[in-house]
Amino acid sequence: MPADERFAVRRDRARASVPRPLAAAPAPSGVPLPDGLALRGRLATGARRSETPRGSGRGGPGSRTPRTGRGGGPRRAYERARRAWDRPLTAYYVILGSSLLITVLGLVMVYSASMIKALDISKPSTYFFGKQFLAAVIGGALMLIAARMPVKLHRALAYPILMVTVFLMVLVQVPGIGMSVNGNQNWLYLGGPFQLQPSEFGKLALILWGADLLARKQDKRLLTQWKHMLVPLVPVAFMLLGLIMLGGDMGTAIILTAILFGLLWLAGAPTRLFAGVLGAAAAIAFLLIRTSPNRMSRLACMGVSEPDPEGGCWQAAHGIYALASGGWFGSGLGASVEKWGQLPEPHTDFIFAITGEELGLAGTLSVLALFAALGYAGIRVAGRTEDPFVRFAAGGVTTWITAQAVINIGAVLGLLPIAGVPLPLFSYGGSALLPTMFAVGLMIAFAREDPAAKAALAMRKPGVRWKTMRRRVKKRPSGER
Questions:
Q1: Distance CA 219, CA 249 (A)
Q2: Could you read off the pLDDT of 17-26 as tens digits, one per residue?
Q3: Residue 443 to residues 10, 11, 84, 450: CA-CA distances in angstroms?
Q4: 406, 397 in Cβ contact below 8 A?
Q5: pLDDT digits (tens, 9 = 90+) for 283-314
């Protein structure tokens, strides 16, 4: 047989040996295929038409419904909230939003709580509100500047801010320059109705300088030695505390001590060292309180429900009255009774009591929730960074704001002695508002410095987004886009 004929026979045999799809060759009429062969035929030829399940129409029994039970609503909502919280820009937006909401609500409550006080001193009803609004505008500008400044510039400003603050705190004690307000010699007169309390800026100065000092020592691996951890941080902090206590401001000294402990804790101070510094501070505080009748009377007013016959604990008792009369939703904005001369300092130290009276439990819980969100976001910034300066500074600012809020609210509730410190971002006082808003801008800058946050912010710029869209869109053959 010739070679070409043998090749043709082999080709025909090979074609005959390949099995044809069963579905392609229809079975004779009346002879059904076995189930297995029919299934193979459908798999070999593929589905020729899309089949819809029974009852797949609207509202049919086969329509898919979300699962309920163990993997249903609450758990799914929790997972969604957790994923939203883990986004790179969450801390940035929480710090910005909560601080602005606290400031705006504080302006409203300052106006409501200070109207009667302003009229009582023959001033317009908007007198205190106007000064606080001006301080909030200046503080907003400082917050924006601080949020846009790089971390290196913040570190460079640490020493100048500390030296200027110490100089102003020394000027306060010079006769004829310093002023005494409510028995505390901690004010500088700036002209007109404006005054300045340099000790409020001492908190910011200690945080920036202490964070820069500890960060440089950590880079050199010196924080494992207790003398490098304490010196010169603790002596400089004690110097600031001494200048504050010369004026008699125990409340600001407590906040500064809390900041010092926060920095030592973040630096990894051992338990014995931390306990030693804490014990020394407690002993000094006990002596200062024991030797002052005014401080002893404040300590005795903890938990009182009514003033004594001689008029003691008047402020503490009426703060409790204001909170108790607020109910669930308060008496209404501007309808407070205690601000008509019964409660001293309704727009400064005890503005939280007026908030509870006018806005009720709902208003006070809202304020607490905003402070809790701000504190938690600060902890997140300090915990996720690799830069030691950012960790120390963010932790110090968070300690400052949360400790001051706890001391103020605890005093209003009667759980702590009245320390005379304002509620951060909320109470009246420009000297307290300006450094606090700068510190909030500092945390915003730290939240923006996170690499993931940087990438997310870069993608949101209009130029980057337009270039990305143009890169992804392909040109159609017709020339249309």
A1: 36
A2: 555 544 444 4
A3: 82, 80, 20, 11
A4: no
A5: 888 888 888 888 888 888 888 888 877 777 88
- Which residues, at least 6 apart from 454, have a Cβ–Cβ distance to it below 8 Å? 448
Element spanning 136, H or E: helix 127-148
Q: Which of 119, 149, 140, 115 is nearest to 129 (CA)?
A: 115
Q: In what order do the strands lie in the sheet with 184-191?
A: 178-181, 184-191, 194-196
**Residue 386 DSSP class:** S
Cβ contacts of residue 447 below 8 Å, gap of 6+? 89, 91, 92, 95, 377, 381, 453
Amino acid letter, residue 114? S
Q: Looking at 3-17, 328-342, 388-402, 447-461, which range is the least confident one?
A: 3-17
Amino acid at 465: R
**CA nearest neighbour of 394 among 268, 262, 230:** 262
Q: Is 145 helix (H, G, I), strand (E, B) or coil?
A: helix
- Kindly report the pTM of this predicted structure: 0.80
Between the CA of residue 275 and those of 151, 267, 279, what are the distances in Å? 32, 14, 6
According to DSSP, residue 86 is labeled T
